[in-house]
Amino acid sequence: MATKRMTSNFSDQVMSLVKALRSDTPDCVASGVVDMSTGMLLSYETVESHPPEVLDLLAGATLDLFQGRTVVMIEDVFKERRGVTSDQHFFQEVLVNSENLTHLFIRMNDQQDVVAVVVCRKSVNVGMLFAQARRVVQNHSL
Questions:
Q1: What's the distance, CA 138 to chain centroid?
Q2: Whole-model pTM?
Q3: How far is 88 from 81, CA to CA, in rounded Å?
Q4: What are the residue boundaries of the structural domains of the chain, listed by start?
């Protein structure tokens, strides 16, 4: 999997996903893709400029949301109780509302350690946000 991420084709697919999220998601002000295996923000687009340290923190926050120690413990307990033996993660999407923005984080279906991030104005219709973001993610395999 690591070699797949080093190819220019993978890079093109990531940039295409980011552009599609940015253009097709309602009220979108920023989009990006985070590789949780490396902790890196692979690509992003935003309507405003942000300090590089804020963008670096986004990747770390995404990692904590999906694979933080407590989250992994919760997933392990559920797997044990339900007799699940797969490596598939339970937490596939996370919605976070801040004071002015709505942030949606979605794991890629075919690569569970890659997460698409969409940031929208708080006024976004959350149903439409989920529907459009899911459609874009499903149509872009990495």
A1: 13
A2: 0.89
A3: 15
A4: 13-139
